[in-house]
Amino acid sequence: MRDNDSAKRTSSTNRRRFLTTVGASAALGLAGCIADSGGGGGSGGGNGSGGNASGLPPKQQGVETWGERINSYAGEANIDWEQFSGTSLRMGMNSHPFTDGTQPLLSYFTDLTGIEVTYDTYAESDLWNRLRTQLSNEQSTYDGFFMGLWPSAQYYAAGYTQNLSAYWNDPKITDKEWYHLEDFTESAIDAYTYQDELSALPFGVEPYGCLAYDKPTFEQLGISEPTNFEELESAAKQISESSEVERAGIGSRASSTPLSTANWASMFRSYGADWISYTDQEAQLSSQQGVAALEKFATLMGQYGPPDVGSFDWTRNIQTYGQGQLGMAYVTASVVGSIPQEQRSRTKWLPPLEGPDGDRVAANWQWGLGISQYSQNPEATWLLLQWLTCRPAQLVTSSPQWQDAPFYGWARNNWLFDRDEFQPGELGENWQTTFNEGMSMVPSKPPAVPLDVPQNMDIMSEAATAMNAAVTGTSAKQALDNAAQSITRIAKNIPDSYIEPYR
Amino acid sequence: MRVANRSPRAVIGTGLKYVVGFLACVWMLFPIYWTLTTAFKTREAILGSTPVFVPTLITFEHFRTIFSGSVDIQANILNSVLVAVAAVGIGILIGVPAAYALSRMDVPRKGDIGFWILSTRMAPPLAILIPLVGFYFAAGIGQGLIGLTVTHLLITVPLIIWIVKGFIDDLPDSLEESAMVDGCNRLQALRTVVFPLVAPGVAAAAFIAFIFSWNNYVLALYLTTGESATLPIAVSNSVGTYSIQWGQLGAAVTVTILPPVVLSLLIRNYLVAGMTMGAVKG
Amino acid sequence: MGAMIGLSAITERYRRSEQSLLNRLEISDRTLRWLFMLPSIVVLAFISIVPLVRAVWMSLHDWNLTSGKGAFVGFGNYETLLFGNPEFFRFEFDPSQPFEFVLSGSVVHQAVYTGLSVSIEVVLGIALAMYLFSLSERWQPIVRTIFVLPMLVTPIATALMWRLMIDGSIGVINYMLQFVGISPPAWTSSPVMAMLTVVIVDVWQWTPLVILIVFAGLLSIPESRYEAARVDGAPRWAIFRHVTLPGIKYMIAIALVFRLMRSFREFPLIEIVTSHGPGTATQIMNIQLYRTVFVGTGDAGLGAALGIVLIVVTVGICMSIVRRVGMMQ
Question: Which residue among C277, C291, C300 places its CB closest to the CB of A311?
């Protein structure tokens, strides 16, 4: 009862606050907060978000239009949306553009279903830590939560999340035709599927190992587009050593946290290396190809990167590029919203480069929503998940639909880019091709990193330590040998059922 | 004229003293100055490659964000105040008598108990959090202010006991004895003689306990939920998945450090007096 | 004497007052001491012992947070931690090449981090406290207020603030260094510099605590002792050595204990500034504990063992200081 009240209060406060804010002044700097917290943030000059110039409606109007539009689209589904009326849900959310972009729409979901929704928003690692303490105690304050791809196998293995396939196959709460699962890249759904059980619905996907480069720099120095890593190195060298351009050659995430390995992981797999042998449950990353890939990466970053590249996480990497201090950024195409307009319009995108044998692999990250094992209202949560990721909702989260709206996502990339309403504004030359090509290079079995086993984060944590050590001066061979010892130990703990598909 | 009487060495000495003081003050103040001004800078100024030392273009955008935008910092402020005040209040209520007993009365194994009290603060919270969270859920105080306040006693009680104990140690025994000779019982002697004299020490202890409770982040992260989160969580939430909102961070930090700063100014004399007497023997 | 007379007057008044409830409460000291002690003991025991016992219990089991509780393994986790965990302690030494050895692990980082930051804080804190003490009455309150400020900033904010200031592209410190012609160091990306960076941040945040405590100690040294020394014509360093230092000995010990306690469980200052890197170069024990339990599959058994080791180390070191200076009496 009390939960219900507080959810109601929060929800109505949000709406009221939003209305007064908009009413107060159009230039109120909602611009600032929303765009900043969202994809459009990090603006160095000019406006942060994408489509401001294209005459987008003010926020209030945009929210109204799209809230109604999502609901009218939902009306086409063969689902009784009101069957859980009176329930209230609490969602554990990241401080993320998706959260900021969907929060103002929640009252429309309540109008449609009679279900109250509260978002609890935390910084990324804060949310993970909270979920870990609660779920390992078989408790949860949340009905559903943000699921990052790489740790989600361990959530599945630990039984933290529910099997969504059961809901997907329940016609009472799912209209498969309406949901259009074919809009998603197949590997994106596969990535969240463990032992034939779906554990999250993705709303955003990120193909890594793409290249964003500064066109004027390339033109000025007469560099041609790299197609493989040798050419990438010579381009980086040229930029770095040129006295005409005040930019470092290249930057990438290279810090010692597991997620920072994503770019290098694309390169590593394109070199033909593997992290582990699934069947032997042993580390394989210090193979000849693995060492070559890390040596190349360490040279690129250590010699031609900015001096503090060893501490580059997502934010630092893209901020540095956005400030015009990098000639090239080795990134995911999904980073685009964090690049300021000025730099974005100077940028050309390239999909993952060829390894020595011509292989091109993209590592992937995804954000999705899962349902807590300890939720009292899993079916109502399932309705919310579908609503938040349905077609028109993807249009809202993947392309700004009101002034300074944050945007991020593109999970329905097979469908999204042809829509008239998909008007993200200037994303840089060749962005859509890069995104789609990148997604098409995401492998499923084995995935680019061992994200189909619960030990993925442990393994990639060791790999990250090795990568970071190599970038900051240790020899690649030694760094990988050290990591291999720990990874073999970790790999021995992979349960048989996860190894079975590889036998 | 007085300068003329000094030796050149003394003049250099004085000059040096000012320089040292100036540098030390800059060292202490600059990061705070930088954060506070960041709260008022536009995003262009924050992210420009030439730092803006004195913002000429002032914006209240970031404060608007945290007060009326996507963040609900009013609730965080209220929670922080409730938790810190309650934890310090209860801490004084139970800690001061314990400090008195440890200092004056014949408690068996006094030294060991005293050290044990201090040592409760030594456990790294991360080591005990998972069991603690489970325990609190089982006790039905899983994610609310009550659980957090109770846990904050772990911060405030040992501090208050130790500082106040040292303070009482310093009072001459004869004060109470003469009061008791005069016919007071011990409780009366406490109330009329000891408490008024230890007041500055208690104030100092309360202030330090307040700061540590107010600033605690780790416990709040695991023991609260959206509605019960405290200010350090609001500070942490300015770290977005894809960017850190520096302006919002500056604004949140400004709001967070204002109460301790004001409080420290209000009780500055107590603070010194309290520290002086209180901590002499620990 | 005057105070005594005043005191009798007060107590007299209370004694006569019929209102005084306290007067009618006849509680023996034997009962009273437990009435005074018990609430604190019960509360602290409730919050600290229950989870601690549970943590010990966890440390004796093979317990993975993702795959669930396993068997009782006795001291197996401790054995793994102390003897088979290179992240905890690693020493490789080949006598034929005595200058190429590897010494790393969170214990080593902890020793460097705590040793360096706490000693700098204590030395700097004493120096600045004495400086503060020497100021005139006009300046002292102002400077004192300034010297306390960093302590008031919530540590997570401190960490983020410093991250902003040393940022490679928008950081003001790099800009100022370049302005005076110094090329900025690789703040967080070389192992040695990263350690220095977190030490610098720690020193900024916590020196004020030492200043505050030591300053209180300086105020409590009777002026007469200084005068006696001056009359004897003792040089300055001798006054410091024989009057000041003994006078603030206890305070230094307290500051030391508070700082050590805190330093052993430091978390945001390091994790936010360097994310324990590069590699694991700034991973102290508490952060290894965090990563063991919260990142990856979550080896709660090993993490708990590490937590217990950390508690034992902290308590051991602090107890030896407390015993040495006789704080317990």
Answer: C277
Q: Where would I find the beta strands (DSSP E) of chain B?
A: none
Instruction: Mutation target for C interface from A308, A323, A373, A480: give the one with most C CBs within 10 A.
Output: A308
Q: In chain C, whose CA is at the least distance from the CA of B260?
A: C152
Cα A311 from Cα C212, distance rounded (Å): 35
**In the prediction, which pLDDT does C116 show?**
97
**Are A97 and B133 inside 8 Å of each other by CB?**
no
pLDDT tens for each residue of A332-378:
999 998 898 889 999 999 999 999 999 999 999 999 999 999 999 99
Q: Check residue A39 and give its pLDDT.
A: 35
Pairing label, strands C90-92, A364-371: unpaired
Q: Domain check: are A342 and A457 in the same one? A: yes
The total domain count for chain A is 2
pLDDT value for C10: 52
Q: Does A352 share its domain with A450?
A: yes
Contact at CB, B49 and C170, closer than 8 angstroms: yes
Residue boundaries of the structural domains of chain B: 2-62, 72-278
Is A497:C311 a contact under the CB 8 Å cutoff? no
Tell whether A7 and A70 lie within a shared domain. yes
Supply the range of the domain harboring residue A297: 210-363+442-502
Name the strand (E) or helix (H) holding C129. Answer: helix C106-134
Percentage of chain C exceeding pLDDT 90: 43
Residue from A256, A257, A253, A226 nearest A239 by CA: A226
Q: Which CATH number fits domain B72-278: 1.10.150.110, 1.20.120.790, 1.10.3720.10, 2.40.30.10?
A: 1.10.3720.10
The pLDDT tens digits for C125-150 are 999 999 999 888 888 888 988 999 99
How does DSSP assign A232-266, residue by residue?
HHHHHHHHHH-SS--SEEEEE--SSSGGGGHHHHH
Q: Is residue A435 one of the residues assigned to a domain?
A: no
Of C288, C274, C263, the closest CA to residue C86 belongs to: C288
Rounded to a whole number, what is the largest CA-CA distance in chain C? 88
Residues B100 and B111: their CA atoms lie apart, in Å, by 14
Instruction: Give residue A44's pLDDT.
Output: 32
Distance from CA of A14 to the nearest CA of B (A): 8
pLDDT surpassing 50 at residue A209: yes
Whether A267 has a pLDDT exceeding 90, the answer reads yes
C57 or B187, which is more confident: C57
Residue owning tokens 């032992």: A195
Overall CATH class of domain C102-324: mainly alpha
Question: Does a structural domain hold residue A427?
Answer: no
Task: Report if residue A423 sits inside a domain.
Answer: no
User: pLDDT category, C11, cuts 50, 70, 90?
Assistant: low
Establish if A77 belongs to a structural domain: yes
Q: What percent of chain A has pLDDT over 70?
A: 89
Indicate the domain borders of chain C: 29-57, 102-324
CA nearest B265 in C: which residue? C145
Nearest-angstrom CA–CA distance, C11 and C14:
5
Whether residues A60 and A75 fall in one domain: yes
The ipTM of this complex is 0.89
Say if C286 is an interface residue toward chain B (CB within 8 Å).
yes
Interface probe, candidates B44, B68, B237, B242, chain A, greatest A C-beta count within 10 A = B242
Q: Residue A342 is part of a domain; what is its CATH number?
A: 3.40.190.10
Q: What is the pLDDT of residue A5?
A: 39
Q: Do C36 and B105 touch (CB under 8 A)?
A: yes
Element (H, E) at C155: helix C155-165
Model confidence at A40, in pLDDT bands (50, 70, 90)? Answer: very low
More confident residue, B172 or A60: A60
How close A399 gets to chain B, by Cα (Å)? 17
Distances in whole angstroms, Cα of residue A435 to Cα of each of A354, A361, A390, A399, B45 = 16, 13, 20, 14, 32
A contacts of B43 (beta carbons < 8 Å): 32, 36, 43, 48
Q: Are A407 and A310 part of one and the same domain? A: no
Contact partners for chain A, using 3 or more CB pairs closer than 8 A, are B, C
Q: What is the pLDDT of residues B225-236, one digit of tens each?
A: 888 899 999 999
Indicate yes or no: CB of B61 within 8 angstroms of CB of A29. yes
